[in-house]
Write a structure and sequence with these properties.
CATH superfamily of the largest domain: S-adenosyl-l-methionine hydroxide adenosyltransferase, N-terminal
Structural class: alpha+beta
Largest sheet: 8 strands, antiparallel
Shape: elongated
CATH topology of the largest domain: Rossmann fold
CATH architecture of the largest domain: 3-Layer(aba) Sandwich
Strand content: 25-35%
Length: 269
């Protein structure tokens, strides 16, 4: 019996946590179509929204968001990353990382989220993609159902190393100096830098330092935004361990003129 038929014959009522991260927004019907198809295929899935406000086609923002969010979910969670579907080379990928499943397009997202394309990356077989809309909602729902029903990826996909791959810009480091870049602007206008707490401790340590970000400078790393006056620049490490540059009760994006890929320099005095 073909596996695509068996998946519906062998239906089980099994809870499956599913997250969705997308650039679909909430204004149009696209997100509703995706969710409705998932529930129609298996009404036992439990859908959690991570965000649908990823900037259109922005796989860098999606990678930062998913990389720092997925570990809060239990192993076995299925993460749908529906961003820049038009740049996916008409391919759907399934990757397994630390016991989590990631369904996404072949647009470079996986390499940015995990620094390289995961070893367990599968390309979904073409037969699942036939007669799909531009949303690929039917194929995605079938893949979710396969995973829920505990089919092996090899039943509906094949291992691949031929995927789009990008390298994230890494900070330039030396003793007493770190040069990084803005990798994300959050909802509050705060700039997230690709400099981690570990990098700071290794290359700056206990030395006095200056953080320079366009027109702003700071000589301290704080724990809370409120440790500086309103309207003042504040630097801290966020919950994901990355350096964040903010304005207390303001937007660093606007007041400091920061944007994605803006350079940030930490220099020991």
């Amino acid at each position: 019996m073909p596996v695509l038929y068996r998946i519906f014959v062998n239906y089980k009522h099994k809870m499956a946590p599913v997250t969705i991260t997308s650039d679909l927004g909430t204004r149009d019907f696209y997100l509703a179509a995706l969710k409705g198809t998932l529930l129609s295929a298996n009404h036992s899935v439990h859908i959690t929204d991570i965000t649908h406000n990823i900037k259109p086609f922005d796989i860098k923002e999606a990678a930062y968001t998913v990389r720092n969010a997925f570990r809060y979910f239990p192993k076995g969670t299925i993460h749908i990353v529906h961003v820049n579907s038009s740049g996916g080379n008409n391919k759907l990928l399934l990757a397994i990382v630390d016991g989590h499943y990631f369904i996404t397009f072949d647009n470079g997202f996986l390499s940015l989220a995990f620094e390289q394309t995961p070893h367990q990356t599968y390309q979904v077989n073409d037969e699942l993609l036939e007669n799909n809309s531009l949303l690929y909602e039917e194929a995605i729902a079938r893949i979710v159902n396969f995973i829920v029903q505990e089919y092996k990826p090899a039943d509906f996909a094949h291992l691949t190393t031929e995927t789009v791959s990008y390298r994230s810009l890494r900070p330039l480091t030396s003793v007493g100096k770190i040069r990084g870049t803005v990798v994300n602007i959050d909802n509050f206008g705060n700039a997230v830098i690709n400099i981690t707490r570990e990098m700071f401790e290794q290359f700056i340590g206990d030395k006095r330092f200056t953080i320079s970000a366009n027109v702003g400078d700071s000589k301290a790393i704080n724990r809370y935004y409120s440790e500086v006056d309103e309207g003042e620049m504040v630097c801290l490490f966020n919950a994901a361990g990355y350096l964040e540059i903010a304005i207390n009760k303001g937007k660093a994006e606007n007041l400091l003129g920061l944007k994605i890929d803006s350079p940030v320099l930490i220099l020991a005095d």
